[in-house]
Amino acid sequence: MSILYSLTPPPCLLSPSEVTLALLDSANDKDPVVREQVRKSILTLGKLQPNKVLSMCQDYLVKHPKVRHHHYYCHLLYAKIKSIISLASDEMTRSKDVVPDWQQAASNILVAVGNKYINDIMEEILSKFQPGILPHFFVVQTLSSLSESNVYGMVPFLNAILGTMLPMLGMAKQDNMKWVFSSVLYLIIIKDTFSSEIYAAYDILYCSWLQSRESKLRLTVAEAVGSMSHLMAHDKLEEQLPKLIPTILSLYKKNTEHYVISKSLCQVLDASVNMGSRVLETQIDSLLTTLNQQVCAPVDYSNPLTVKNHNEVLRCFSILANTFPDRLVMFVLQKLENSNERIRMGSLSVLRHLINSSTSIMESKKLLILASIRQPLADHSNKVKKRVVQVISAMAHHGYLELEGGDLLVKFIIQHCALPDTYYRPGQRPSDPEEVTNEALRSMCDNTLHLFTTTVGRLTDVLWPMLLYYLTPGQYSNATAPLCKSLTLLGTKKRASQEPNFNIDFNEHVNLPSPHILMVRLLVNGSFPFRSRGHGAPSLSLLNVISPNIHPNAETLWEKEIPALLSYLEGKGPQLNDPRFLAKSLVAIADDKWSCQLAVEATRYLSTYNQSLEEKSFLYRCIGVTLQHCSNKEVVQKQLQEMLISARHNDAIERAGVAMGIGLCASSHLDATLAKLDDFGKSDAFKKASGIFSLLKNDSDVEKMKSTLILCYGYVALRAPEDQILSRIDSDILRSISNFYLLLFPQALYKDTFNALQELLRNILARDLSPNGLQSVFKHIEEWLSSGQGHERERAMNTTAHILEFYFNNLHVKNMVTFHNLGSLLGRLAPRCTDPNPLVRRAAIDCIYTLLYIQLRYEGFSLDYKDDSVERLITLRESMDNPDHSVLYKTCSELIISKRLPQQQLNTLIFMLIEGLVDSQSNCSRASSVLLNTLLKNRGAGLQDLVSEMLEVLHIRLQMISEEQVKVSVAQSILILATQHLQTVINTLISYPLPFDSWSCEMWIALGADSKLASQIMEMLMEKLNIMVPYVDKKESMMRGAIIFYAILLCQMTCALKEMMLNGQSQEAVVSLFPQLFSSLLVRLGSSVGVTLPKDINSSGTHRKSPTKLSAAVEALRILLARAQLDHVVKPLDQEGAWDKMKDPQQHITGVTLLARAMAKHAGPRLPAIVECLCPCLNNIYECQRVTITAFFSELLNHHVVTELMMMDVLMNNMMERISDPCCTVRMLAVRGLGNIAVGSPEKVNKYAKELLAAMSSGMEEKDDPGKRITLEAMSGLSKVLLYLDKKNVQLLVACKYAMRVCAPVVGSELITTMFQNHLHEDKSLHYGEFINDLTKYIIQDFPGMLNFYHITVIQFFKSSWAEVRAGAAMFIGR
């Protein structure tokens, strides 16, 4: 077919005239599809031969006047303009009646031609637009359309049009004529020439037409009247205003569509104001009332006309403000007090518009507006508040907020940045579509505050440092994040510019919080970073910026420490509720007076956190750390007194906070702390107490104060320096406790101290000798078991041992009770058997020994019962003195505690051991891993319901494990779980979001360590991959239409395979499954072409790099080849950029071809199995997969290895089947592959000659072939095949004749076609010379322009290896 598109249109079987006539005859076909195809064909012919086709169309329409198909007109404007114009004009006015479809089509032709040939069009139109004669409707409509589409071209004709039109307006009686005249007048009226005539037209439109009952006509007339107002003489307009304005205002009630009315009113008001109308004042009341009704109407933002109407009404207010500023402003401000919510909202919209659009006029009204805006500030409606925020934003940009009273507006914004979430009762949902939720209003205020900071430069000195005030009051806590962000921006800018007012004089700004309170507030925020809308990071950033204002000495430390804390927070780490940062800061500040003042003010600030007890508890600890660094004893004692007296002892969290703070203080001020605790114990508050035995008896305040005091002594004992506390135990701690609670034990100081503390705990435990009571005591000790300080762990472990021994000795089991916390206790204690401190190790063995006997008691055994397996722990205890790691781990392995643990408590033990993986002592974290794996091996088969949760917790813990050996053990844990619960493990890991984080990858890599298991997993994943839908269609938006999205699960499984293959131990599994893996990944690769990843794929908030749509499959394929030791395949693919080509949809086939080539050259023996796996996929419904596989097979046929490995028949058959594939790309690749047989296995050409030639012939006949790719491949393949066919091969002769007969019609010569059909038969002989003689004669006759092409082509055959071919070529040239 390419011959038809040569530079000179070639002769066809039918002439263009005959074709055009035939198409015109078919134009009235009943089938719309046929009519559309006819239209396209006429258009194509018209582009090639415009004059001839247009002439025939014109003649046809003249001869067949009844034909009515206007669809073709719009495409025939190429030549003979005069005739077309005349014909269109006649068709448009042939019928006096209005025939919309036909006459509109003719009018459209005239308008289209008029864009280029305006003079010719107007000559024709004006001939039918004569003075005194009412023109045809579509003549006027055409003038209107021309005025809109060719504005400049119509200018010379406007005088003539108006001169003819204005006198005939009174002749129009029908609404449609009035409407069309109004439309033209709106577009073409000219003031300079027709200002007097305009009034005459206005008179007709206003007095007659505007009163029409037809809504469409009224609106069009109103639009024209509005435009006329600027063109009328001033005296005439002034005369008409008292009637015109009320008439326009009355239209609002008569029409549902208001935009045109508002636009017309705006034009009339603009004209009136511009000429200085005096009459306008008499209309001001009705104008304001009506405009107020319009501006208060709801705006439907899905309906553009209602938005436009709202804007036009606002413009009306702006115009009136120029003449009546005082009257208008007072009207608007009075409406702010109206009880109707809608009126208040509308008035605020007007006020905002006036502030933005009438700056100079509103300048003198600023103070009045500031005073009046206070009323809506107190409004309870969120919808009104939203408008208030918009007004405040406008005021900020025009200098209002700098004035007196502007701070109230800033306060309003901040108050609403602190709004809580909207509360809905269960099942309740907002019914009002305009409802403004607290969240929406809060977000709006956040953005407004940010805009104040970043875009309103004049506010910088207003906001700085004023915003600091709002950081510390509790009611603004929810606004902390946006406040800190704005202050950080302001402070950073001022600090970088070295502006003097960056340094704050807190004595001058008395309303601001002190530097000490600012530091406290921001530090507490940073320690609970994810509360109050994530205020932690902004608070720390601000603290860093304002460091010179807090204390100059803190600047260097904070610049180093705070960015590290921020990075930690970005990783969503746990809360930083540890006062170590404060301790470092106080050391750097090194200012005792400042530190003392910090302690005083922080203590005074405690009550601010009465509703946030965890934050308050942390602040107690901060005060304790601060007191550590104070040398002023008086300050220390006073603040300790304040902490003890002001604490709310009824709350356990606060009690603990007080105790920890006092314990921290004791590390530097032991004497002062003990003295103050002694005074507190002797105070009047305790006189009602009756001793220790009343403890926990009731909830009275006295008993809670006792609990606080006990905790304080306990934390003092834990935190005080060891060399100091020993001398004070007997004289202070035990004496104070014994006076109030205990009997004094006259023993050695150190032993007495801890015996006393243990006795205290034993007495508490005695009140509730149950598993719950034991847990309530143990929870106060357990955090110290993993302390980084050895002496703290030793004390905690010894205390635990004594508590357990007491519990066992006093246990009386009357009923069968479950020792439900056995698992949690063992999980905490067992890893300590490998603690670096030998005393801790021994105590841990003692604890476990006692625990197991407690369990035996609950199982019903007597107190004197001895269990052999438990007794073995006594022997093992002796080995605890040996610090050798091998002995420690051997001990852990021998502690088969799982034999004594009931199944129902296994869960707790497992999760405690997992928590122990991040123990501060590496020996203990390793022990946790060893115990965990031992437990999983022995009992893991019964943990089906826990597998997913265990994997999730392991995933979290992996992120915090730094010990490499522990990581290896975790990998082993995952492997153990997989051997027992394979499907659950796979389902859990595969569900992790893409892209897999590094810890998810480690978990998948771990599964590749066991070759047998890896093979099983890979088979399961491939089975899923092969049956999954590779992508899904989703309609993303109206504009972008349907988008093909990558199936997330498919990508997750592909990534999983990739990570498993990264494990070197997976090589055996990879090699055994190589054909299946290769074929699955290749098919996945094909499925990924042109596919998009969903937007929410990286919704987890992390900053990991997202995988591209093809990277997963391509990377997995490359890793597969490398793991299978096919480096010779990978190397050329790397060098040729094949991987990137496979990802690119435009080069995908090239990339796959390179892959097949490399495999054929360097991995031939692996191909048969691969081909066997891929063959069934050729029947998949997804053409992207068939394209990839066909491209791969096509290139394989280009190599002799196919024949060597006996794959020819299989590939040949598959390619023949793909010849009829519905996808043209697949058919093209199949034809290419068949042609490649001649290159890869030329000796097979004669064997498959018939099939190959038939396929090439079929390819050359292909009709559904965009770009002629199949035809070109067929020609290329045919040339390859013919080179290797046996010249004596009868099939060759038959095939050549057949191919020439089939191709003859494509040549485009009727003579040649007839000759080929008559003479080229398989069963007839042929006289070659005569045949060539006739053929050349017809070529010269029909294609003289192609002779050079044929000469060049035939000369190439002079080099053929066949003498007959060379002779035939010479004969052809000679003829």
UniProtKB/TrEMBL annotation:
Ranges for domain Maestro-like HEAT-repeats: 791-1018
* Domain MROH2B-like N-terminal HEAT-repeats as annotated: residue spans: 43-185, 189-229
**Which top-level group of life is the source organism from?**
Eukaryota
Q: Which residues form the Maestro/Maestro-like HEAT-repeats domain?
A: 1282-1374
Short name of one Pfam family: HEAT_MROH2B_C
| The UniProt record lists the keyword Repeat | yes
Q: Which InterPro entries match?
A: ARM-like (IPR011989), ARM-type_fold (IPR016024), HEAT_Maestro (IPR055406), HEAT_MROH2B-like (IPR055408), Maestro-like_HEAT (IPR048465), Maestro_heat-like_prot (IPR045206), MROH2B-like_N_HEAT (IPR056282)
Question: Where is coiled-coil annotated?
Answer: none
Q: Does the keyword Nucleus apply?
A: no
Domain spans labelled MROH2B-like HEAT-repeats: 232-741
Alphabetical UniProt keywords: Repeat
GO CC terms, sorted: cytoplasm
The protein, known as = Maestro heat-like repeat family member 1
What is the organism field in this record? Oncorhynchus tshawytscha (Chinook salmon)
Top-level taxonomy:
Eukaryota, Metazoa, Chordata, Craniata, Vertebrata
